[in-house]
Amino acid sequence: MASRHGVDAMTGMGRLIRGGERLALSHYRLEAAQWAEMLSAPGPTLPLVSCWVDERSASVLVLEGDRPLLASTPVEDRRYLAPSSRFPGAEWGERVGYDLYGVEAMEARGNGAPALDEGGWTSTWPLSGQPAPAAGGLRPLAGSHLLRPEQTGLSGPLEFSFEVHRGAIRTVEICAGGAHRGVVSRLLGKTPEEAMPLVSRMTAGGFVAHPLAFARAVAQARGLLPGPGIRDVWMILLEIERMSIHLLDMARTARGVDAQLLATHCDHAREAIARACSEQGVSRRLMDMVTCDGFCDGLEIVPLAQAVHATMQPRLAALEELQRVFAPRLKGFAVLDTRLAARFAVGGVTGRASGRGTDMRRREAGMRLEALRTTGSSQGDARARDGLRLSEIRDSLRLLERILGSIGLDDDEPAPDRTGEGIGVVEGARGDVWYWVRLKDGRIENLHVRDPGVSLIPVLESMLRGYPVSRVPAALGSIGLSPSGIAQ
Length: 488
Description:
Elements: H1 4-11, H2 13-18, E1 21-24, E2 27-29, H3 32-39, E3 48-53, E4 57-64, E5 67-74, E6 79-81, H4 91-101, E7 104-106, E8 123-124, E9 132-133, E10 145-147, E11 159-165, E12 168-175, H5 183-187, H6 192-199, H7 209-221, H8 228-256, H9 260-279, E13 290-291, E14 294-295, H10 301-312, H11 316-326, H12 338-343, H13 348-352, H14 382-405, E15 421-428, E16 431-440, E17 443-450, H15 460-464, H16 472-479, H17 483-486
Parallel strand pairs: 2-5, 6-7
Antiparallel strand pairs: 1-2, 3-4, 4-5, 8-9, 10-11, 11-12, 13-14, 15-16, 16-17
Helix pairs in contact: 6-7, 8-9, 8-14, 8-16, 9-10, 9-11, 10-14, 11-14
């Protein structure tokens, strides 16, 4: 039975979105008046997954229950009514849209600071139909204290500026220009098969998750449904990646609180997984394993899964004991409030450790749900996140066992209608990865990527407020922030 919240949402904002012109399976076009009505609709606000803008339209992807709903509205005279007037988390997408296309969000929240263009670009609004020469010169950052990319502990050029009062952080600004590579614009015009190698390198935190979400979006656009054998191979690859990334984030967190012994054990376990992959003839981090219609030639999934399981299972007890020893150092650190997790649809371990129970694996056909026993907590601190990571590793091992015991088990999921558009989602190690793809004549006409790191941007200030700048790297490691995922 649906909750009262779900009923209200479906008869409010969701109903208004579905009142627009249907373009694809879950995609509706709203005229300006309908868009404004949707943004001012009474009742609950559906969780925002992502917002993106180009010269032609502004779009928001929301969740109705656990189902995606995509609404778009035309951009007129380079302007549109800002979705951040209703969805605070849309501000980042609005800022990115202005930097790349020069499209203005009316009645937007925030200060309108650039998201990507820090003054070093050769042209202003480079993806617009009429880019202009840039004035030149890097813009001064607003904060009085900086954390340079090499000081963050992250694998990528993300910079932070802070306002500090009496030694404690008061405000935070993220500077993502250095991490922006223009990947999405480079994918336009390619066939999905031509695009896949670049998608597979979107971020080191998702060598499986990103190409898998893309492959699912492409399959939906083509009206195809991968068979149960392919589906199970994808699941196994994703769980191996989940364990590896969880160990990486645990190691980074441990080093931030001088828990070197735990960090070393995590490093050794992650290396053991990589070695098991290499010994089975695949890449250490599973790069280029996923293809648009399945998986790479030569992949023997059963011995790979067995090797990884045999490698990780004996290490769990020591990891769990060390985590218990060092957990007090993480108690109460970098807390994400339950209300903020829900308001900004923060996913993955960070969201689940703050009481938001969303796990997109639970909606997948063929999922062995009995293996997913782990639930989150409402503590929202670094200790809860690390404890959850270890529990999810145990779930991943259990899921490998279940899949190996019934690999290729059929189900009755119907193939989607072919509409040329598709939405794909994957519950990656750090949260839900989303791809929206529109194809024309077999090539990518439009594309949007939403990495789970984007949902962390509006909550970072709350999580870091009151700490000295020196503690920021430990907090960033605890939440698993990925620079390349934020600024494609």
